[in-house]
Design goal:
Strand content: 5-15%
Number of domains: 1
Shape: elongated
Radius of gyration: 40 Å
Structural class: alpha+beta
Largest sheet: 4 strands, antiparallel
Order of helices and strands: HHHEEHHHHEEHHH
Oligomer: single chain
CATH architecture: Up-down Bundle
Helix content: 55-70%
Strand order of the largest sheet: 1-2-3-4
Length: 451
């Protein structure tokens, strides 16, 4: 029994040292730190942010229809005239200058009021779109973070399995040399060692690819995510009721908020169409000046005479549409149909969010159960490996039994590590599914990482 414990210790030490290696040391980044970097550099999020800003200015444009309008026009002309008065003719050459200031203030324009209300709904929808983009970035960054950790764990476990298989290969060779085992044991161990070597190459490449993906997302080079501190106490779901999560989604999910804003916008579009039958009333004012500083009169007493005329006007402008070739009636029918479409889209969004929330909730519950089962399986696999090694020593087990037990143990370790990451990701995806995900939800996960 003592030699068995001695042979296991190098593998155990390798596994422990590898899991606590460089990523947790100086220069390693936490999940929150990498999210801050991704928020500042991710092109997809920056595009959504710019679109949000553009939508705010677009919404503000609709307000212009309710505010005063003013315009200034001016001109200067050179005029040449041939004039005949009382049998006398002559030429008139002079300059004409004019300037007019026009202003108007809408008093009653129902279509403009509806357009302004639509602008407000656009702001609401734009905020929901930006919130959705932020949640998408949180999930993408977290997934990339845990993909790197999972790839690191896989490489660590494969290398530990390689060391254990190499140890078993050496043991089989010694037994063959002393005549206590057959060449079959050596060949089986060699085949398994070669297989694990191939798996190690694949794991190294997978880790390299996952790190490139995380670097691209964060805009950093050589990112080093901090691993989970083991043993990890995964956070409990709160509230522990799927109906409570669904109820939250109805009020705050960005998709539902956007669909609701789209319905309200469609209703306002109908109001705009109905305004095609309604009159409009504006206050109008203008002030203009026209001058001919070098005008020349015609006749016996022709002389140069300058003129200047100033005109001021203030009044009301009333317009009542009478008939537009049935364009208004058909426009109203069109907008009513679009209202029905928006209502159906809102209901579809609610159903999709409900389904997504329920699916994500039960996925987290199932994942937590898998973690507990894999923790028990890890302990059982370790016991099975110890028993097979002891049985091989005393001759009741063959080498392939030990190799299979080793493979099962390290596969279980990989599955357990991935299951933990899946539960953490599942919690974030659940919050995304019901629309409540924020950057603050990264803090509980950040607290589970190695300091």
């Amino acid at each position: 029994m003592t030699p068995l414990l001695f042979r296991l210790s190098p593998v155990a030490l390798l596994l422990s040292a590898a899991l606590l290696a460089a990523p947790a040391g100086a220069g390693a980044q936490s999940l929150v730190q990498l999210y801050d970097a991704a928020r500042a550099s991710d092109a997809t999020y920056q595009s959504s942010r710019a679109q949000y800003d553009a939508n705010l200015f677009r919404a503000e444009q609709a307000r212009a229809g309710l505010l005063p309008q003013a315009a200034l026009t001016a001109g200067i002309n050179r005029i040449n005239q041939e004039v005949e008065v009382a049998g006398q003719s002559g030429d008139r050459n002079f300059n004409a200058r004019s300037a007019t200031l026009n202003a108007s203030q809408p008093l009653y324009r129902p279509a403009n009021v509806a357009a302004w209300e639509q602008g407000k709904r656009l702001v609401v929808a734009s905020a929901a779109q930006l919130q959705s983009a932020e949640q998408d970035l949180l999930v993408r960054l977290s997934q990339a973070y845990f993909d790197v950790l999972a790839a690191q764990d896989t490489l660590v476990f494969v290398r530990a399995q390689k060391a254990a298989t190499n140890e078993q290969l050496a043991f089989a060779k010694r037994n063959f040399e002393v005549g206590t085992s057959t060449i079959t044991d050596t060949r089986e161990a060699q085949a398994r060692y070669d297989l694990v070597t191939a798996q190690e190459i694949a794991a190294e490449n997978d880790l390299r690819v996952k790190r490139i993906a995380l670097d691209t997302l964060t805009g950093l080079n050589d990112t080093a995510p901090k691993p989970l501190a083991l043993p990890a106490a995964l956070p409990e779901l709160a509230p522990a009721s799927v109906d409570a999560w669904v109820q939250q989604a109805e009020a705050q999910h960005p998709g539902i908020v956007q669909a609701r804003a789209a319905l309200e916008t469609a209703e306002l579009e109908t109001r705009k169409a109905e305004a095609g039958h309604k009159p409009t009333l504006d206050v109008v004012a203008s002030y203009g000046t026209a001058s001919n500083p070098t005008s020349t009169s015609v006749g016996a007493n022709a002389a140069s005479v300058g003129t200047r005329v100033n005109t001021g006007v203030v009044g009301l402008s009333f317009n009542l549409p009478l008939f537009a070739g049935f364009a208004v009636q058909n426009r109203i029918r069109e907008t009513l149909s679009l209202e029905d479409k928006a209502k159906a889209d809102l209901e579809a969004a609610r159903r999709a969010v409900t389904l997504g929330t329920r699916t994500a909730y039960f996925g987290v519950v199932s994942g937590a159960g898998q973690v507990k089962a894999l923790e028990a399986a890890e302990a059982s696999s370790q016991s099975a490996l110890d028993a097979n090694k002891l049985g091989y020593q005393v001759g009741v087990r063959i080498n392939i039994d030990v190799l299979n037990a080793q493979s099962q143990l390290f596969q279980t370790k990989r599955d357990l590590a991935k299951a933990r990451y899946d539960v953490l990701m599942g919690g974030l995806k659940l919050r995304q599914a019901n629309g409540s995900l924020t950057a603050a939800d990264l803090q509980p996960i950040n607290a589970l990482l190695v300091n």
